[in-house]
Design brief:
Length: 506
């Protein structure tokens, strides 16, 4: 197979540049590695060769393959050495003026038919290309770190980029063993844009005092299947990286409420509590190991009162079967008895609102999150309201922990935790499709591979139900009065018509 680009240059021999050089050589390209710092290109080449030596030692490459790959990567010390390249990939510091100057110089060195691309993660491809004589041959080619393992690359068309350039780059990404996704030149492209909901909504939940950081992390991992909780993830990426990205995308979208950053991360960044690399973030770390307080056991109670379940509860038949299976006596009256534990299961509303609207005794009312099928979760989540009595809370906790499943009890919150976070993620993804940032299929692929979510956001919305997502968002907007939760037209129309969130108009 003929590789799309046979001679490529990589400018920048840091972690990204080295990773790109490695997979480009593995695809069959001859690679020239350049860096402005003395000796950096040679060190970068050595690091790439070391990766192939390790693969040889593990039996993944034979000696001939290792040597053939090694011969394809050379370190060079000047831009002029890239003159014969048919593709040059820039992976230098995220500074607009530095990149503009680089491409302006590079354009006068390489052939007029050469393709020039930037690996930028946060800057506008159009703005970088603005200084070029021929911006139509310039595109974004955004890889993720570590490049050999993160199997997705965003191909980004600037305002004047020739469509054939993107098509050829996408084919080259496939030859590298990566999945190419096509994106418009918008802030955050696909992955960083779609990822805005997870951390920012979790921060809002924590900021309201609904639950502590560890509880929020546990709920989202155990209920919704995320590999890392949002605060574990923020500690891993480090706040000096993640908070500026939050602020940047918020500002680039002219203070769109869906992307609003949090004062919590701003304060921690100012304090130097950046995460794992400083030994302290949302968690403390000893020798790189996260220190976490064990969860307290379920309370012991003398008896469980009879249980009355609101007729408006989400998944009410399942909830009734669950309460019965756990051994509680169910009440079947139109109203609860004077001693009953009152259960509500709202979508988007808080327990307080439901108790007030349904005229329930708030002191005996507890909410349970039933958006996710109980059989599919490893954790149940209960919520009290400000009036809930301690003995009622403890009785509900003890009841739902009877079969050994872990239970978290949080303070009142519209949409509990999982509903809020999932609906925010889904809504942002839907609006990206509405804006035409990318196709629905590319969005789900990019997020699944780039962020490691259990499903793509649109598939996630389909799993929990577009109409449920709509209900959660409408009710969150009622509870909080915040335009952050206004549903995207993409979601509203598909939810109203019973269509999949991946459905595209003909």
């Amino acid at each position: 197979m003929t590789v799309n680009f046979s001679n490529i240059g990589v400018i920048g021999a840091g972690a990204m540049g080295r990773g790109i050089a490695q997979i480009a050589a593995q695809a069959g390209s001859e690679v020239l590695l350049l860096d402005s710092f003395d000796g950096a290109a040679a060190r970068g080449r050595d690091a790439v060769l070391a990766q192939w030596r390790k693969q040889h030692e593990k039996g993944k490459l034979d000696a001939a393959q290792r040597d053939a790959l090694s011969s394809r990567v050379r370190a060079v010390d000047s831009m002029q050495a890239l003159a014969a390249c048919d593709l040059v990939i820039e992976a230098v510091v995220e500074d607009l003026e530095v990149k503009r100057k680089l491409f302006k110089e590079l354009e006068d060195i390489v052939s007029p038919s050469a393709t020039l691309v930037t690996n930028t993660s946060s800057l506008s491809v159009t703005a970088i290309a603005a200084a070029m004589k021929h911006p139509e041959r310039m595109a974004g080619f955004h890889f993720f770190n570590p490049v050999p393992l993160m199997k997705v690359v965003e191909v980004v068309a600037g305002f004047k980029t020739d469509a054939q350039v993107c098509k050829r780059l996408a084919g080259y990404a496939t030859q590298m063993g990566h999945s190419a996704v096509q994106a418009k030149d918008t802030p955050g492209f696909i992955v960083n844009h779609a990822g805005r909901g997870y951390g920012t909504e979790a921060l809002r939940i924590a900021g309201e005092g609904v639950a502590d950081f560890a509880t929020i992390d546990r709920i989202l991992k155990d209920q919704a299947g995320f590999r890392l909780g949002p605060f574990e993830l923020l500690d891993l990426t480090a706040l000096d990286v993640s908070h500026p990205v939050m602020e940047s995308i918020y500002r680039q979208y002219y203070e769109e409420p869906r992307y609003r950053p949090s004062v919590i991360t701003a304060q921690r960044l100012a304090a130097g509590a950046l995460g794992r690399k400083t030994g302290e973030g949302f968690y403390r770390y000893a020798d790189g190991t996260m220190q976490q307080t064990p969860e307290p056991p379920a309370p012991t109670v003398d008896s469980i009162p009879s249980v009355w379940v609101s007729p408006r509860a989400a998944r009410r038949p399942e909830l009734l079967r669950l309460v019965h299976a756990l051994g509680a006596q169910l009440e079947s009256g139109a109203t609860p008895s004077s001693a009953a534990l009152i259960l509500v299961a709202p979508l988007g509303f808080d327990v307080t609102t439901v108790a007030a609207v349904e005229r329930l005794d708030a002191t005996r009312t507890v909410g349970i999150d039933m958006m996710v099928d109980d059989a599919a979760t490893q954790r149940r989540v209960l919520a009290t309201n400000p009036a809930t009595r301690r003995d009622v809370r403890d009785a509900a906790h003890a009841l739902f922990a009877r079969d050994g499943k872990t239970v978290s009890v949080i303070r009142d919150s519209g949409g509990f935790v999982t509903q809020r976070v999932v609906a925010t993620i889904v809504n942002i993804a839907c609006d990206m499709c509405q804006q035409g940032v990318c196709s629905p299929a590319d969005l789900d692929t990019a997020v699944r591979l780039g962020l490691g979510y259990p499903q793509g956001p649109l598939a996630m919305g389909d799993l929990y139900g577009p109409t449920n997502m709509l209900e959660v968002l409408f009710n969150l907007q009622t509870v909080y009065g915040d335009p952050r939760y206004r549903p995207s037209p993409w979601l509203r129309r598909r939810g109203a018509l019973g269509l999949s969130l991946t459905h595209e108009e003909e």
